[in-house]
Amino acid sequence: MNGRLFKIQDWEKLARQAKFQPGVMAALCPVSLRQLQRFFAEVFDQTPREWARKLRCRMARQLVSEGWSNRAVAEELGFGNESHLCHEFKRFYNVPPQAFAPLYDANHSAGIAFPKTPALKLPAALHQSPVAASVDDSQGTRSHALFKHVAFRQECRV
Known about the structure:
Blueprint: H1 3-7, H2 11-17, H3 22-28, H4 33-43, H5 48-65, H6 70-76, H7 82-93, H8 130-133, H9 145-157
């Protein structure tokens, strides 16, 4: 195993510099793509391409949760277009990127008055939905409303 690869401390920074392309990552190291693949198989237990895809989706989730639009995230992280971002994101998280977007907060509406909407009564089965129960927001608290809505829509399709 090449000792140069063990000296790299910030793989995420390297991947971002290489625009999430394993061949470019290998060239920046400088090692062959095959050496990089063997290193990733041993250290990360996945291929460089899989690792880079997961990293890019995690970074996309973070940006979307900060309020970035799909278009801005796609441009920032080097996706071909918004559709490519949504496709990769759904493959990884099983929900579209905007499912992680911050919900509108009426307390920060700058004095604009909006009519109140009645609360939606959801079936009790949705309260135990794996989609609703599996995602935490950035403060460590569970945010269920949007994920229950997603689960409800999926249940209606069946």
